[in-house]
Q: What sequence folds into this?
């Protein structure tokens, strides 16, 4: 039993250390991409249709969408898409259009055979399909820097890839455990994205050429699937088509007083998307779950055993050294956020995230549906939508 603990504990520290070092390399990779983008002549940059599905009443939406409308990109058409013309997001679009008259508003209608976001995205594509060479898909609640679009489209403009993706980082505006744990979970996913074996599309910031959109039948795929990024990533992996990660295409997500149920719902979706669309990665996620939770639990029992002379002195010493090593690795992770956060809060947030991870993964074992923006999607193999039910 001790050796099981030792193997899992070593794997956990090694994985977290490799990811931390990978994260430290991302700024340098972004600078290299920026230099390559600056060397591209202006006439090499393709025309872009930027499709932004919008829903809900998130207070961050107005500033986030406006940040997407002030990109220093030669030619792009912003398309804001809502499900209907009366929802709050549609009112926001109309207010934005007063300041940016060139913005197009598409009313998609309700989805019946796919996720509402997929449906909105496809309606946005239809609005500009014959006018642009590249489709870019963005979420509506993340802040973008003025060079975000150039970073995301750069590999396509240079002819180095057909698909590219960015990601986001959470900026915690408070030090509450849930806010920090949410920031840590997003950071984990960002660092996994940076490992080439795990790089896949992220729907909040992804780009593809119009030719690739047609060649890989993206429209047909999304029209019957619950999610955009995982479903397409699964198809591209099966066809051995690579996705280029653009570290400089990094969006910023502010989090203040993040609520536990919101965090839990977000994590549920991330795990369930993998379960239905990418089952192999979902299985690997299960192993990661075991590696995250078993070492600390077994470590507690070993230390308690030491108090009652049940555990060997060597076992107790190794557990203590492991805790110190884990603390050092998590210190590296804390530095990646570049925020002044006390280590005790960061460590407690890490434990909170591990517990939530276990609960979410356990729930995913029996789940057959995904709840998203008030809709329950009953999902079958490969993420195909069986039926859509209104939850509330």
A:
């Amino acid at each position: 039993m001790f050796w099981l603990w030792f193997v899992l504990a070593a794997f956990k520290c090694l994985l977290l250390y490799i990811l931390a070092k990978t994260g430290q390399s991302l700024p340098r990779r972004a600078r290299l991409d920026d230099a390559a983008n600056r060397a591209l002549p202006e006439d090499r940059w393709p025309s872009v249709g930027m499709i932004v599905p919008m829903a809900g009443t998130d207070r961050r939406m107005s500033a986030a969408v406006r940040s997407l409308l002030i990109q220093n990109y030669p030619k792009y058409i912003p398309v804001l898409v809502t499900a209907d013309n009366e929802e709050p997001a549609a009112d926001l679009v109309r207010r934005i259009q007063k300041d940016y008259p060139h913005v197009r508003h598409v009313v998609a209608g309700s989805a019946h055979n796919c996720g509402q976001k997929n449906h909105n995205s496809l309606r946005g594509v239809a609005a500009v399909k014959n006018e642009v060479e590249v489709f870019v898909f963005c979420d509506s609640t993340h802040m973008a820097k003025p060079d975000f679009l150039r970073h995301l489209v750069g590999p396509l403009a240079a002819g180095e890839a057909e698909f590219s993706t960015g990601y986001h980082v959470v900026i915690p505006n408070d030090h509450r455990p849930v806010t920090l744990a949410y920031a840590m979970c997003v950071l984990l996913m960002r660092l996994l994205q940076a490992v080439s074996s795990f790089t896949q599309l992220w729907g909040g910031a992804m780009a593809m050429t119009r030719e690739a959109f047609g060649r890989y039948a993206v429209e047909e795929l999304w029209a019957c699937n619950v999610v955009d990024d995982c479903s397409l990533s699964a198809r591209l992996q099966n066809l051995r088509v690579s996705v280029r990660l653009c570290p400089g295409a990094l969006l910023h997500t502010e989090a203040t007083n993040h609520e536990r149920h919101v965090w839990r719902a977000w994590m549920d979706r991330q795990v369930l998307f993998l379960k239905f669309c990418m089952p192999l990665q979902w299985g690997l996620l299960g192993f990661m779950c075991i590696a995250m939770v078993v070492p600390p639990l077994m470590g507690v029992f070993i230390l308690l055993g030491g108090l009652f002379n049940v555990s060997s002195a060597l076992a107790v010493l190794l557990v203590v050294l492991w805790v110190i090593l884990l603390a050092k690795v998590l210190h590296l992770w804390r530095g990646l956020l570049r925020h002044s956060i006390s280590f005790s809060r960061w460590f407690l947030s890490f434990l909170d995230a591990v517990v939530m991870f276990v609960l979410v993964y356990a729930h995913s074992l029996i789940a057959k549906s995904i709840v998203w923006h008030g809709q329950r999607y009953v999902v079958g193999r490969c993420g195909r939508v069986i039926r859509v039910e209104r939850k509330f």
